[in-house]
Amino acid sequence: MNATDFQELALINVFTGNIVTLFTTEAVTGTGRVDTYGDSFINLHWDYPTMSAVGTYQCTAHGSDTIGHDILINNLTSVDYTKPDQDVLLNKIHEMDNALKALQNKMDELRNYSAVVTTLLRENAHLKECCNANSRKVDVLLHSVFAHVVNNSYFLSKENSSNITEAAAVCNRYDGYLVEITSAEQYHVIRDFLLLNSTNALGIFLGARKYGNTWRYSHSFRNVSYFNWDYGEPNPLTNYDCMYLQYRSNLKMFSFPCTSSFYQFYALCEFPMFSSDSLNV
C-alpha cells in the first residue's frame, strides 16, 4: 500500500506542541505530544464511530538523527468492525435509560426550584408592600427624627405617655430606648431639636431613674454623667425618681414620680447607629 493511498487525518509537530491539527469532518478528538527527549504520540478517538472508520491507518514520523540525516518511520494499524452482541446493546440501552431518568429528575428539581423562586419573589414583593405600609405607619406614630453628631439617632414620639413605663414601651416597640444624655454637647443638640419641634405635652421623658441616692440610665445602667437641673431640682421627696425635660422651663431637667398619671409626656427615643432596618412595626 502506497502513501498516496492514505488520506491525511491529523498531524502534530514540534511547532504546535501538544496541539493536534485535524483534517477530517468526522466527530474525532485528537490528543498527542511531541517530546524531543522522550516518547511522542498522537491519538485519535471516535465517540460514535461508523463503518467509515474501519480500515488501515498509517502513522508517519519525520525527524533527523544526531548527524542531521532525515529519518522517516512508518507504522500501520488496522481498525476492524465487530458487531456487538445483544447483551452489550441491552446494557447500553439500560445505561442510556438511567441517564435519561436522571436528566428527567434534574429537570423536575429545576422546575421545583423555579416554583420556589417564584414564591419567594412574590413574598419579597409582599414584604416590600408591608415595609412601605409600615413606614407610613411609623410616620404617623413618630413626630420627628434627627441624627446626632455621635452617630446616634433620635425619634420624638407622637404618642402621649402618662408614666415612664408607657414611654419606655413606645421606644421598645421600635427597638430603641429612652434617651440617655451623657454630655453638654448632646444636651444642647437635643434641646435645640425639641425647641424646633415643640409639643403640647408638659415635657419629654428621659431614660434615667434614681436608685437610692444615685441617678442611673435605665438602658445602659451606667451612672448619669450629665445634669442640667432647674432651680430647686431634683425634688428631695423619695418618690421623685424619674427625670424629664420641661418645656415651660426652657427644657431644664426636672425630677418627677415615675408612676404619675396627672400629666402627659412625650418619649424621646434613642437608636445607636440607627438604620432604617431598626424600625419593626
SSE layout and pairings?
Blueprint: E1 10-11, E2 21-22, E3 28-33, E4 41-46, E5 55-64, E6 70-79, H1 86-141, E7 142-147, E8 152-157, H2 164-173, E9 177-178, H3 184-196, E10 203-211, E11 214-217, E12 242-246, E13 252-256, E14 265-272
Parallel strand pairs: 10-14
Antiparallel strand pairs: 1-2, 3-4, 5-6, 7-8, 8-14, 9-14, 10-11, 10-12, 12-13
Please outline what is shown here.
The protein has 281 residues and is α+β, with helices and mostly antiparallel strands. The chain is built from 3 helices and 14 strands. Helices cover 28% and strands 29% of the residues.
Task: Characterise the protein shown here.
Pfam families: Lectin_C. Residues 149-258 form the C-type lectin domain. InterPro entries: C-type_lectin-like, C-type_lectin-like/link_sf, CTDL_fold. Keywords: Coiled coil. The structure is a single chain. The chain is built from 3 helices and 14 strands. It is elongated, with a radius of gyration of 43 Å. The chain is of the alpha+beta class. Strands 7, 8, 9, 10, 11, 12, 13 and 14 form an 8-stranded mixed β-sheet that branches.
Name the poorly predicted regions: 133-144, 274-281
Rounded mean pLDDT is 80
Helix content: 25-40%
Extended strand count: 14
| Element string (H = helix, E = strand) | EEEEEEHEEHEHEEEEE
Q: How far is it from the N-terminal to the C-terminal residue, by CA? A: 91 Å
Tell me the overall shape.
elongated
Q: Kindly name the structural category.
A: alpha+beta
Largest sheet: 8 strands, mixed
- Strand portion: 25-35%
What Rg, in angstroms, do the CA atoms define?
43 Å
How many distinct helices? 3
Keywords: Coiled coil
Domain C-type lectin: 149-258
Coiled coil: 86-113
